[in-house]
Amino acid sequence: MGSIWTGDRVSLRGIEPEDWRAFQHIDADTSDMRAVDVIHPPRSAEGYRRWAAEQAVKEPVGDEFQLAVHSRADDVLVGALSTTGTDQRAGRFGYGIGIGREHQRRGYATEAVVLLLRYMFGERRYHKCSVGVHAFNEASLALHRALGFEEEGRLREHEFFAGRHHDVVVLGMTTDEFADRHGFGAVAESGVD
After folding, report:
1. What value does the CA radius of gyration of the chain take, rounded to a whole number of Å?
2. CA distance 179 to 30
3. Minimal CA–CA distance to 129: which of 110, 147, 149?
4. How far is 110 from 144, CA to CA, in rounded Å?
């Protein structure tokens, strides 16, 4: 028996209270924090413990949720991903992903995104996924292009940090484009006749 949330390298799971140390460690690298979102003020160990405990019991709001990305080989949390901007009427959503620096370049982000997209397109009936990537983040742009995302535009001087404004590249993928490249797996694999 398999799980839609498990790949060869990673599994996606809920955040557990004991994950607080891993998130604290990931947030310690300012460039990682900026690549994922923005730089936040330092948080105490107790703040991380409380945040992880809250995340562990937090119910999804519609189709917006956050998941831990867990390395199957190393049995450690390597990052997180979350859905954003879900719009069931229009059939679109976005997501964000962050993998800790020491776990990058191992295929974790690629597999985690494919697992998420397979769920959102194949189980939740969304039609399109859009993501915004900082224009300077070449690794993330390469990841999304390799996954099959198409560049749809650029938001000029859209985000401010490090003393100036930066462009954001908008990329998108439809369910048909995903299916052509990655597929949804055989129905028999899920136990459905």
Report:
1. 17
2. 36
3. 149
4. 8
**Start-to-end C-alpha separation, the chain:** 15
Distance CA 178, CA 172 (A): 10
Q: How high is the pLDDT of residue 187? A: 53
Nearest CA-CA partner of 116 in 144, 147, 142, 81: 81
Average pLDDT value over all residues in the chain: 92
CA distance 120 to 128: 9
What pLDDT, on a 0 to 100 scale, did the predictor assign at position 182? 96
DSSP 6: B
Q: Say if residue 38's pLDDT is above 90.
A: no
The CATH number fitting domain 10-190, selected from 3.40.630.30, 3.30.70.3450, 3.40.50.1110, 3.40.50.150: 3.40.630.30
Q: What is the pLDDT of residues 170-179, one digit of tens each?
A: 999 999 999 9
Record the tokens describing residue 103, joined without a space.
């776990």
**CA–CA gap between residue 167 and residue 37 (Å, rounded):** 14
Domain boundaries, the chain: 10-190
Provide the edge-to-edge strand list for the sheet that holds 150-161: 10-13, 66-71, 76-87, 92-99, 128-134, 164-174, 150-161
